[in-house]
Task: structure prediction
Amino acid sequence: MVGTEKGILMPPCQNWPPLVYHPCYSALELPERHRYPIGKYRALYQALLAAGVPVETLITDSPPATREMLALVHQTDYIDSLCQGTLDAKSMRRIGFPWSEFLISRSLQSVGGTVHTAQLAMQHGLALHLSGGYHHAFAGEGSGFCLFNDLAVAAMQMQQQGVEKILIFDCDVHQGDGTALIFQHNPGIITASLHGEKNFPARKQQSDWDLGLATACADDTYLEAVQQSLDYLLNLHQPDLVLYDAGVDIHQNDDLGLLHISTAGVLARDSYVINSCRDRHIPLAAVIGGGYQRDLTALTAIHLQLFKAAFNSRQLPHQIP
Ligand SMILES: [Zn+2]
Result:
C-alpha cells in the first residue's frame, strides 16, 4: 500500500525518471512512402503508458528552443532562412523533409525537449527524451533528417549554466558528424561516436573518440566496443553530465543500419550505459535517436529497450517485454 500523506510514505512516482515528450513529435504530415517513421514517437508514448509507466512521469510542457539558444551552436543566417522558409531547395533536399511551418515548430520543440531532458538529468540523475538525436546538423546546414542539432544545443546550454565537462556518447549507427565538427575546439564537451564505418555519412568528421564498426558486426563485438569505449571515456574525462544518443538503427532489422545487433543486444548496451553512469553518480540524459522500420510496432519494441534499461536500473515495475 502506498500512502499519499507527506512524510509517511513515498509517492509511487518518486523514483521514476522524468520522460520528456510532446504530441507534436509525431504530428508532422509527410508525403506517402517517406522513409522517416514519424509515427514512432506517439507509438512509444502510448506503449510506455500501456507498460504501466505513471502518466505523471511524462513531461509534455518543455519550452521550445529559442533563437538565442540555437545561436549557441548555429549560424544566425541559417537559423533565420530555415525558420522563414527561404533556405534554398538543395539545402532542404539535404535535410530530407519538405519545408512547412509545422516542421520548424516541431523541430524547435524537439530541441527544447532535449535541453529540458539535460536539465532534468542534472536534478534527477537520469532523464529520457522520447525524441532527439539530430546529430547530422552542422552549424550552418542541416543534413540527414536533422535541422538543428539538439545534442549540441543542449550541451552548450548546460555548459553556459556551469556544467564543466560534458560527454556526448553517441551510439546511433550513423556517425554524429555534425556534433563532432561543432565541438572540434571545445575542450569542455567531449564527442564520442560508435557507428557503422560504411554507413551514412560517407564523409566522416573527427570526434574526440570514433569507433567505426564493420558491416554485420554482431552483439559480442559490439557490446565489447561499447563497454571499453565508455569505461575509457568516463575514467579519462570524469564528465559532470553524459548526453547519450541511444539510436536503435544498430538493430539487425533496421532499414538503414548495416549492423546485426539483436533486441537483447540493444537492452544490454543501454543497460551498460545507464548503470555505468548510475554507479559513478554521473547524471545521464538519453535521447532515442535513429531507428528505421516501416513496422512501427516492431520499431517501438526496440526503442522501448532504453526505457526498460532505465526502469530496471531503478528496480521500477513495468511490463516492457
Ligand atoms: Zn542514425
Remarks:
- The chain has ten helices and eight strands.
- Strands lie at 19-20, 58-59, 126-129, 166-170, 189-196, 209-213, 241-245, 284-287.
